[in-house]
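Need residues for this backbone.
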């Protein structure tokens, strides 16, 4: 086999012996092991992802265990669109915005109608809300002794 030209029969028998060789068996086993690892990882990933999204984690893990890859693909299609943390974070954000909107600064303290934060006077009940800086004319809170924008003493 070493040196010289290999005939067709020799080539064929060397291919066959390669497939029967321990090296090939090892490669084959490693490949199977790799598939099992991928399969297991997908099952684990599905379980964790479904739990984070508030889905039926055990159910989907079982599905992707019974139907390798296919179950995982189906899960990818039907899974809940966002993580629970993201949902909570967004709710918190909305609440914060609502709190800002509900801030007394933006409501006339007298008639409780919505006013702009730059309004000097309430357009509904004419209550004075802020005073204009004599120098830069920015709206200042009543009671301030110095303009925080231009440092003009009031
Ligand atoms: Zn008012
Ligand atoms: Zn000023």
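Answer:
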């Amino acid at each position: 086999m070493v040196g010289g030209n290999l005939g067709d029969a020799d080539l064929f028998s060397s291919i066959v012996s390669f497939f029967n060789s321990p090296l090939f068996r090892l490669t084959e086993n490693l490949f199977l092991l790799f598939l099992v690892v991928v399969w297991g990882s997908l099952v684990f990933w599905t379980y964790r992802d479904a739990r984070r999204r508030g889905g039926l984690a055990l159910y989907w893990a079982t599905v992707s265990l019974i139907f390798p890859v296919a179950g995982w693909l189906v899960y990818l299609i039907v899974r809940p669109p966002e993580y629970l943390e993201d949902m909570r974070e967004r709710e918190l954000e909305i609440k914060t915005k609502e709190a800002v909107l509900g801030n007394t600064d933006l409501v006339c303290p007298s008639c409780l109608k919505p006013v702009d934060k730059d309004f000097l006077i309430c357009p509904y009940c004419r209550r004075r809300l802020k005073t204009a800086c004599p120098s830069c004319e920015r709206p200042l809170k009543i009671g301030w002794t110095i303009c925080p924008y231009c440092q003009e003493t009031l």
